[in-house]
Design a protein that fits this description.
alpha+beta; Umud Fragment, subunit A; 7-stranded antiparallel sheet; 2 helices; 7 strands
């Protein structure tokens, strides 16, 4: 039979003293002040978060109404709507991109989001950097899908919206 241990009367009294001291400590004005300070700080942080989200939503709506691409802290979000970048960036993936400091300094293998001559927004990889007769730079782009062929139109640096940073798969 396993050996059992019984609590003595002295141990019970010691536990009662510890519980009584803890109740006194919790009921002290300093601990009440600390708890109310933590509650107040939590509410203030929540309110600040709500205000930031509302401000962000309003800013995005105003930017979209002007026909511009909305950004948050310099980061643009684009959704890949075609399979031209499969398997690197599958259809339905949201990508994060940042406006390049110098669009003429991009190189081969950079993934860029740009506006086509027809006005559509596309994300493709730079496969060739071209030097123009006037000394300017242009790019040839292509989707990563093996079935894709290089884009017919040459990409001017002024049509580049952003350079790929990361992908957020949603599907």
């Amino acid at each position: 039979m396993p050996e059992s241990r019984w609590t003595t009367q002295e141990e019970i009294e010691a536990m009662r003293l510890v519980i009584a001291r803890e109740k006194e400590r919790v009921a002290s004005p300093a601990s009440r002040f600390g708890r109310s300070l933590v509650k107040w700080l939590g509410r203030a942080a929540f309110l600040a978060l709500v205000l930031v989200l509302v401000f962000t939503f309003i800013t995005i709506q105003i930017t979209k109404s002007k026909g511009e691409t909305p950004s948050l802290f310099g980061i643009y979000l684009f959704m890949v709507e075609s399979g031209s970048m499969d398997p690197t960036i599958p259809r339905g993936t949201v990508i994060m991109a940042r406006k390049p400091d110098d669009p003429t300094a991009l190189g081969k293998d950079d993934i860029v989001t740009f506006r086509t001559l027809g006005g559509a927004v596309a994300t493709h990889r730079i496969v060739e950097v071209l030097t123009l007769e006037n000394g300017g730079i242009a790019y040839r782009t292509k989707g990563d899908n093996p079935d894709s062929s290089p884009d017919l139109e040459i990409l001017d640096p002024d049509r580049i919206l952003a350079k790929f940073v990361a992908k957020i798969p949603l599907s």
